[in-house]
Design brief:
The complex is a heterodimer of chains A (626) and B (208).
Chain A: E1 2-7, H1 8-18, E2 23-26, H2 34-40, E3 48-51, H3 55-67, E4 72-77, H4 78-94, E5 100-106, H5 120-126, E6 130-131, H6 136-153, E7 157-162, H7 163-166, E8 169-174, H8 191-194, H9 199-223, E9 227-229, E10 237-242, H10 245-255, E11 265-269, E12 271-273, H11 277-286, E13 289-293, H12 299-311, E14 316-318, H13 333-344, H14 351-358, H15 376-390, E15 399-401, H16 426-436, E16 443-448, H17 449-465, E17 470-476, H18 504-511, E18 515-519, H19 524-536, E19 540-546, H20 550-555, E20 561-565, H21 575-580, E21 585-587, E22 594-596, E23 616-620
Parallel strand pairs in A: 2-3, 2-4, 4-5, 5-7, 6-7, 10-11, 10-13, 13-14, 15-16, 16-17, 17-19, 18-19
Antiparallel strand pairs in A: 1-8, 6-12, 9-11, 20-23, 21-22
Helix pairs in contact in A: 1-2, 1-6, 3-4, 11-12, 15-19, 16-17
Chain B: E1 4-11, H1 16-29, E2 34-39, E3 48-55, E4 69-74, H2 77-80, E5 87-96, H3 103-106, H4 115-125, E6 128-132, E7 139-140, E8 143-144, H5 147-156, H6 159-162, H7 167-177, H8 182-197, H9 203-207
Classes of the chains: A alpha/beta (626), B alpha/beta (208).
Chain lengths: 626, 208
């Protein structure tokens, strides 16, 4: 037993190990990545852990292991649930044998991009129980209880964290892992349970799924997961706090004057689906004013208002449906104070402070994110821009669809190149819609390697089958980079552990595009030539821009070359900086010339290709290829 | 229980999140309840980074509210302004006055606040502002010592933090984290500690 600082993600991983998990799968996505990433750093010979091709694949693998009787965990960010859901709803209807837990991290306040969606909606749709920790320590405990709940009810169970919990660090007392059960895998042939062919089967499964959710309510009550605390006197203020916000409630009660909050009753709900009807009924009967404190959508509030109507509650409910709190963003102590002030009909003392939070920011310099110094994608963006021009088009008349991951950073200055970002793989299919719209200009789609493996392949298959003319640029840097360098199918074999590398070029070639070119994106000239040819040509053209992610290359001490500045030649036109926006370029403190920060520069030489005076000199290093 | 809420601000690549980790390790040694949340952009460098540290709370949410921070450290001049709404009136604000210009500023497209404007705004918001000049870092083995450890030394001497964690324990957390480069780090820590706090050196740091 050790006390240590763990993130919520790590705590979920440790909780799962303590619960004897056998199989763990996932797809990287901020803020959930740290769970599988942590497990992969540990020596766990008796477990199976992998980054899967996508969330649907990951979930199906976990479900297979759980159907065979083992405990299995599958992890993803909220957007991943959209991908996994097709499988998830079917598996929810079938139920599970071994404990099956889906760990998902939502991102209220959007620290990392993508829709600010609330996975609690998926729990309701799929009739699956959901547990929501409010701290890393609670995540450790609830991860274990999620497996217990799953096995006691036969339902897969959602474990949902939010960014501040998943990425938050706190003291956790973790006990030693427990090895997976030593069982013979279950091979149960039961088409009524494991297939969906036939109306009777499907309806039976739907009803069984509802039965499991009803059973979950009792099990959750027995496990004591939700805590109701009623004040001595009735008729006062009640708070229903959900998941992450229960910690904010605890902080508010700890710091509040006793004179101010003598009669607050609380229901701290960490098991949020099914809705805790019994305890909520008690809260409604006891209180005259109820604040519902939950992040994102007002699901608990809706349920409470329905219950209030059913039970004839005469008091007031404060939450989001009355406009007090926002369905966007995180909720903090100031939001709690605001809601309580509204409930009590007193002026909100925090209003000024809230306003202050948004002031001053104007004075800070804007800091848009861009690609790293030496990022191979920079070469790709610049080549696309140059090729569009070379092929005789204006930048603003050529649609370039973007996709998920680092590759989307081409939307920002100085590139301003990409027009769209939708979901994993969408760049390829969205582009086809633009083609069929009758555009007279060529359409370009861009996508990264991991994103292509995840969801881009069907779009390319479709384009090739239907002879839809487009140019697809696959930006292959060999890693799932934006989430912090995870291995994907195309990562070099030496990082694949017991797995092997899938040859991305061979995959594309096998699909049979009309043209496939493999180019080093540092070679701006060749890349521009190839792209501009492709833009003038009919058919499906794929350009595979291959060069390892600069962060990973530099970690191994691999430099592409050396770029230097001849200060006497530099006229400080800033063209290098304007075109590349490279973070390694700056201006000498005395304002005399461009300087290169050697701690950042990878010697890609792109800047030198735009220097009109020859002040920037580049020498490639031998053997510094992809 | 005594509590101390600390806000760290800076730019990705400055080692701000590492400081959160070091303070948390020190808190663990000192048996002080601790929670911290880093907020940062993606894998790339150069984006805004914020770390919220909650020390000494039995129960607490992850985030610091408006006017909730006892102690603020900004590792970059422009980003320091983002700390103002969080400062308690009695807060201590440590500014490590490094300038990390975004490209838009270098190109003359965006404005960057002056040192005077930033200091004036910070002084209006809180009780005590300590400015550290990046150039005042000592040199160890021909290199300026690590900026973040220098700033950590400065932070560790602040009353609000000392009341919960002895600076020696913070220093020990630094030493344990990187045993092989402990000597240079202790020089950095000690220098920051002395410069910001007008105090005698720590026994160990002084020896280094």
């Amino acid at each position: 037993m050790t006390r240590q600082i763990l993130t919520g993600n790590e705590a979920v991983a440790r909780g799962a190990l303590r619960a004897g998990v056998k199989v763990v799968t996932g797809y990287p996505g901020t803020p959930s990545t740290g769970c599988v990433a942590h497990l992969l750093t540990l020596d766990l010979p008796d477990r199976y852990i992998e980054w899967s091709a996508n969330e649907k694949v990951a979930f199906e693998i976990a479900a297979g292991a759980a159907w065979a009787g083992h405990r299995a965990l599958c992890t993803m960010k909220m957007s991943g649930v959209n991908v996994a859901y097709d499988a998830l709803i079917s598996i929810a209807y079938s139920g599970t044998n071994g404990g099956l837990v889906i760990y998902v991290a939502d991102d209220p306040g959007v620290s990392a991009g993508m829709p600010e969606q609330d996975t609690r909606g998926f729990a309701r749709m799929s009739q699956l129980p959901m547990l929501e920790p409010s701290s890393p320590a609670e995540a450790y405990v609830l991860a274990q209880q999620a497996f217990e709940l799953s096995e006691r009810t036969g339902a897969p169970v959602f474990l949902r964290a939010t960014t501040a919990i998943a990425l938050g660090h706190a003291t956790v007392t973790a006990e030693d892992p427990i090895p997976p059960r030593e069982i013979e895998p279950i091979l149960e042939k039961d088409i009524r349970r494991y297939t969906k062919a036939g109306s009777a089967i499907c309806i039976e499964q739907h009803l069984a799924s509802l039965d499991r959710l009803r059973a979950a309510e009792d099990v959750i009550f027995q496990m004591g997961l939700n805590a109701l605390q009623l004040s001595e006197e009735s008729g006062g203020l009640g708070v229903l706090a959900v998941g992450a916000t229960t910690a904010v409630l605890a902080e508010a009660l700890e710091t509040a004057d006793d004179a101010e909050n003598p009669t607050v009753s609380t229901l701290r709900a960490v098991a949020t689906n099914p809705f805790p009807v019994r305890q909520s009924t008690d809260l409604l009967e006891h209180c005259s004013l109820i604040v519902v404190f939950e992040e994102l959508e007002p699901y608990a509030e809706q349920a409470l208002r329905v219950l209030a109507q059913q039970t004839g509650f005469k008091g007031k409910i404060i939450g989001k449906l009355d406009g007090t709190l926002s369905p966007s963003g995180e909720l903090g102590i100031n939001d709690f104070q605001l809601a309580v002030a509204k409930a009590r009909g007193i002026p909100d003392r925090t209003a000024d402070a809230q306003t202050a939070m948004t002031e001053n920011r104007v004075a800070s310099a804007p800091r848009p994110i861009t690609v790293c110094a030496g990022c191979p994608h920079r070469g790709t963006y610049l080549a696309i821009e140059a090729a569009v021009k070379q092929a005789g088009y204006a930048k603003d008349e050529v649609m370039v669809t973007g996709d998920i991951g680092c590759t989307i950073l081409g939307m920002n200055p100085p590139f301003d190149l990409l027009w769209t970002e939708v979901s994993m793989g969408s760049s390829v299919s969205l582009a086809q819609g633009y083609v069929h719209s009758g555009l007279k200009t060529p359409v370009i789609a861009t996508i990264g390697d991991s994103t292509f493996f995840h969801g881009g392949i069907p779009g390319l298959v479709n384009a090739i089958q239907h002879r839809t003319p487009l140019t697809l640029v696959v930006m292959d840097n060999g890693w799932t980079s934006m989430t912090g360098m995870q291995v994907n199918a195309g990562t070099d074999e030496s990082f694949q552990g017991s797995g092997r590398r899938v040859d991305l070029e061979a995959v594309i070639r096998g699909l049979g595009p009309d043209r496939l070119d493999v180019i080093d994106p540092y070679d701006l000239q060749s890349m521009t030539t190839v792209l501009s040819e492709a833009l003038r040509q009919d058919g499906v053209k794929v350009v595979l821009a291959q060069r390892e992610c600069v962060i990973q290359a530099r970690r191994r001490g691999v430099l592409a070359g050396r770029t230097t500045v001849d200060a006497d030649q530099c006229v400080l036109c800033k063209r290098c900086l304007e075109v590349t926006g490279c973070p390694a370029l700056g201006i000498h403190p005395e304002g005399t010339s461009i300087v290169i920060d050697l701690s950042l520069c990878n010697g890609c030489g792109l800047c030198a290709q735009f220097c009109p005076t020859g002040a920037l000199q580049h020498a490639a290093l031998e053997g510094a290829g992809t | 229980m005594t509590t101390c809420d600390i806000l760290l601000l800076g730019v990705g690549g400055q080692g701000v999140v590492t400081l959160g980790d070091l303070i948390a390790r020190a808190a663990l040694s000192a048996e002080v309840p601790v929670a911290f949340v880093p907020t940062k952009g993606m894998a790339q460098r150069g984006g805004f980074v914020k770390v919220e540290i909650r020390l000494g709370h039995d129960a607490t949410g992850p985030r610091i509210g408006a006017h909730g921070a006892d102690l603020i450290l900004a590792m970059e001049r422009s980003e320091a302004l983002k700390g103002i709404p969080f400062a308690k009136p009695g807060a201590r604000f440590v500014l490590f006055d490094h300038v990390w210009e975004p490209t838009g500023v270098t190109l003359g497209e965006d404005a960057y606040p002056s040192q005077e404007d930033v200091l004036t705004a910070l002084r209006a918001a809180c009780n005590e502002v300590v400015r550290l000049d990046p150039k005042d870092r000592p040199v160890f083995h021909d290199q300026l010592v690590a900026a973040n450890i220098f700033a950590l030394g400065a932070l560790s001497g602040a009353e609000a933090l000392r009341a919960l964690i002895d600076p020696q324990i913070v220093q020990e957390a630094v030493r344990k984290r990187w045993p092989r480069v402990a000597e240079g780090n202790l020089v950095a820590f000690h220098a920051g500690y002395v410069q910001a706090n007008d105090r005698e050196g720590l026994s160990d740091g002084g020896a280094a």
